[in-house]
Amino acid sequence: MKSNLQRSNNRNDLLLDAAAELFATQGFRSTTIRDIAKASGMLPGSVYYHYASKEELLLAVYDTGVAQIVAAFEAAVSRTNHPWERLSIAISTHVEAITQDSHYMRVINRVLPEHIPDQLGALTEMRAKYEACFQRLIEDLPVNASVNRSLLRLMVLGALNHTQFWFDPKGELTPAEVGEAFTGFLVESIATDQTAEKTSEKGDSHAS
Amino acid sequence: MKSNLQRSNNRNDLLLDAAAELFATQGFRSTTIRDIAKASGMLPGSVYYHYASKEELLLAVYDTGVAQIVAAFEAAVSRTNHPWERLSIAISTHVEAITQDSHYMRVINRVLPEHIPDQLGALTEMRAKYEACFQRLIEDLPVNASVNRSLLRLMVLGALNHTQFWFDPKGELTPAEVGEAFTGFLVESIATDQTAEKTSEKGDSHAS
DNA sequence: TCCTTAAACAAACACTTGTTTTTCTAAGAG
DNA sequence: CTCTTAGAAAAACAAGTGTTTGTTTAAGGA
């Protein structure tokens, strides 16, 4: 039988952390095994004791990242039952995730499945767990029947994914303001009348 | 003096075309000089007779791509003076550009300046020429005073940049429908009243 | 104490990368 | 018919890549 006191697992976590940080800041292709090994204080070959390949290391990071961002998402969204507020909160949570917090979540934004063809299926599957959050959230939005919810989801996801290239955490805008603005751009156009009125009272979309 | 009949320039164009296609379909890093040489029917070393480096080759492709997409943009947008229709047309032009047409335009979408740190400045400068088109277009939109036009532009650009990952030219949606949908999601929320009414008559945003 | 084994080291391997150098070819100029 | 030279071939270079292999270390169980 196995001993209940395994030798230090911590180096494995350290390795994973280092990989996450490097994947998040440099991307997958630009990060070498030697970079990761150096950052976690070991030699290149030692990495392969823990993970069979560089791509498997990415999968482990990705898995953790998805779990974290889904958890952050659900925690944030549970604060209210109002569908449009939920969208706003979800957006700000996403923006927060890619600027602060752990590097694992940033990997989900930076490394797109389409960029690693060999792992396209696995990565897409994981990422789908996150995108499904938005799917449910958008399904719950009270919008006009003519609205193509799938296109709406893709528009929002695209806008969110791009925030990594322009959002400056030291800038004037807060993640919450981005969420409110993006939501505000949409709400009155597509919401059913009663929900639009309810939201516009507290939203920032109208001046007059 | 130089002879007016230079030897065949066409191999240079062929080289550029091959590079554009590969950069567009595989990305910059994943495309090797050997790939490009093979696709243009020459040997790796011969590429360097025409371009001093792989990155210089990218710059040449990028430059052509920006010129083409700006031209396509302006030609499309000039068809109407209505600001919201212009936005819709601009979006559909973008979606068309990344699916049909030349590979040069697809490179602009696929290869983001942030991914090639050594040429960040040059690429950003070129890309700005394209993004400026949207900036002017959004400046001309009659929207409420509370609307942050900069955020609106970033939202639209993000959504557009992401279309490459999901838009299927063989699918049910046409680029024009994407443009109309995206515009429809926005127009009534942020447009000043009279323009919103004008647009909603022909748009597809309201059912009731 | 002996043995097992998790964990890492040390060093190379096999290959790919962008790039350079040298050599050849063929077309136009004089 | 030479001479020059644009243009490409051929082959290698130097650096970097992911990965594998053989060896060492040290902790825990018998």
Structure, explained:
2 copies of one chain form a homodimer. With 208 residues, the first copy, chain A, is mainly α. Chain A has a domain at 58-202: Tetracycline Repressor, domain 2. Chain A has 10 helices and no strands. Chain A is elongated and about 60 Å long. Chain A has helices at 10-26, 33-39, 44-50, 54-77, 83-99, 103-110, 120-139, 149-162, 175-190, 193-202. In chain A, α1 crosses α6 (103-110). Chains A and B meet through α8 and α9 of A and α8 and α9 of B. The structure holds a DNA duplex (30 and 30 nucleotides).
Task: Please name the defining characteristics of this protein.
homodimer, 208 residues, mainly alpha, Tetracycline Repressor, domain 2, disordered N terminus, disordered C terminus, DNA-binding
CATH-defined topology of the domain at 58-202 in chain A: Tetracycline Repressor, domain 2
How confident overall, as mean pLDDT of chain A? 86
**What top-tier CATH class of the domain at 58-202 in chain A fits best?**
Mainly Alpha
Head-to-tail CA distance between termini of chain A: 73 Å
Number of continuous helical runs of chain A: 10
Low-confidence stretches of chain A: 1-7, 197-208
List the helices and strands and how they pair.
Two copies of one chain form a homodimer.
Chain A: H1 10-26, H2 33-39, H3 44-50, H4 54-77, H5 83-99, H6 103-110, H7 120-139, H8 149-162, H9 175-190, H10 193-202
Helix pairs in contact in A: 1-2, 1-4, 1-6, 2-3, 4-5, 4-6, 4-7, 5-9, 7-8, 9-10
Chain A binds a DNA duplex (30 and 30 nucleotides) through residues 3, 5-8, 11, 32-34, 42-50, 53-54.
